[in-house]
Amino acid sequence: MQHSFSNAQRAEVLTQALPYIKRYTGKVVVVKYGGNAMINEQLKQQVMEDIVLLWLIGVKIVLVHGGGPEINETMARLGKEAVFVDGLRVTDKETVDIVQMVLAGKVNKTLVNLLEMKGGKAMGISGMDGRLIEATVKDERLGYVGKITKINIKPVEDLLERGYIPVISTLGCDREGNAYNINGDTAAAYIAGALNAKRLIMMTDIAGILRDREDPATLIPHVTIDEAKALYDEGVISGGMIPKVDCCIEAIEKGVQKVIIMDGRVPHSILMELLTDEGAGTMVTGE
Fold first, then answer.
1. Across residues 68-78, what is the average pLDDT?
2. Which domain holds residue 147?
3. How far apart are CA 34 and CA 150, in angstroms?
4. Could you give the number of structural domains in the chain?
5. Which of 106, 117, 102 is nearest to 48 (CA)?
6. With contact defined as beta carbons under 8 Å apart, do 249 and 227 qualify?
7. Is residue 16 domain-resident?
8. Exposure of 110 by Cβ count < 10 A (0-12 exposed, 13-18 middle, 19+ buried)?
9. How far apart are CA 26 and CA 122, in angstroms?
10. Of the four listed, 4, 132, 195, 230, which is most buried by Cβ atoms within 10 Å?
11. How far apart are CA 122 and CA 113, in angstroms?
C-alpha cells in the first residue's frame, strides 16, 4: 500500500513529532521483543527500523528479546519434546543447552545483524555476560528455569555510554556456573528497573488489556497499579495476561516511569507510542 505524501506533509509529520523527540532524547527506553512480531519477517524488519530511528534521534534504546518459537522449532528438529508446567517450559540440562544455543546464538546475532544493516550500532549480550542476570532455581519441577536474584547492570550501561544498542538474550547464571532459562518479560522488567528507564515497552500478540478478550474495541488505554489489581479480581486480567501485567507492576515498583503493553503485530507501533499523541496499547503507571 503506497501512501502519496507530499514533501510538505512529510515535513509536517516530522515537526509534530518534535516535542516527543525532545522528551525521549537521552532517555532510556527498554523494548521487550518476542512473539509474532519476531516470527513475521516484514514486521521484524519494521521493528528494527523503528529501533534504529529512535537510536538515531538520541534515545538510549535497549532491546530485550525472547525466542520461544525458535526454541520449539530447534527442539523439534532435535527430536526433543517441549513440556510445559503452568505455562513455563520445563528445562532439563539438554534443553538449557538448546535454549543457550538458540537465544544467545542464532536469535541474538540475527537481531544484531539486522540492526546494523538498518544503520544502527548494536552489540549482543546474554544475561550470562558480565553476570548481568544472576539467578537461582525457580521451582524444582521446572529444572533450569531461573528466578532472578540480582541484576548487574554495568555492562548494559557501558554499552549505552559508548553509543551501542544493547541486544539482550534472557539467560541467567548462578555462582556454580549453571545456566538458566529466564522469562523474557520478567528479565525486561528487572533490567528496565535497574536502568531507571523512562519507558518499558512490552510487545505482545494482543492489543493490550481488553475488557472483553474477544473485542479489540474494549482496549483499556491506561491503568494504574491499583486499577490493575482490581481488574485481576474482576477476572478481566486472566490467563497469559496475568504474568505480563505482573511484570509491568514489578517494573514500576523497581523504578520504571511507565510501562506499555502493545500489539507487536501492528506496523510501527513503537513509533506510534513514543512519537504521537495517540499512543498504542495499554499504559500502566504507578499513580
1. 90
2. 24-285
3. 23
4. 1
5. 117
6. no
7. no
8. middle
9. 17
10. 132
11. 8
- CA–CA separation, 266 and 40 (whole Å): 11
Question: 84-132: per-residue pLDDT in tens?
Answer: 887 777 899 999 999 999 999 999 999 999 999 999 999 999 999 999 9
Q: Dihedral, CA atoms, 223, 60, 46, 216, nearest 10 degrees?
A: 0
Residue 12 confidence (pLDDT): 84
Is 154 within a domain?
Answer: yes
d(CA 129, CA 173): 9
Domain containing 82 — which CATH number?
Answer: 3.40.1160.10
| Contact status, residue 136 vs residue 146, Cβ threshold 8 Å | yes
What does the angle CA 226 – CA 232 – CA 234 come to, to the nearest 5 degrees?
105
Query: Is residue 14 domain-resident?
Result: no
| DSSP H helical ranges for the chain | 7-24, 36-39, 41-56, 68-77, 93-100, 108-117, 154-161, 184-194, 225-234, 241-253, 269-275
* Lowest mean pLDDT across 6-15, 55-64, 161-170: 6-15
* Cα–Cα separations (whole angstroms), residue 200 to 45, 63, 105, 190: 20, 10, 24, 10
Q: Does residue 210 lie within any of the structural domains?
A: yes
| Ordered DSSP codes for 95-112 | HHHHHHIIIIIIIHHHHH
Dihedral, CA of residue 192, residue 196, residue 199 and residue 204, to nearest 10: 10
CA distances from 19 to 117, 165, 217, 221, 275 (A): 28, 23, 29, 21, 8
pLDDT at 4: 67
**pLDDT tens readout for residues 207-223:** 889 988 888 888 999 99
Task: Classify residue 203 as left (phi > 0), alpha (psi -120 to 50) or beta.
Answer: beta
C-alpha grid cell, residue 204: 505482545
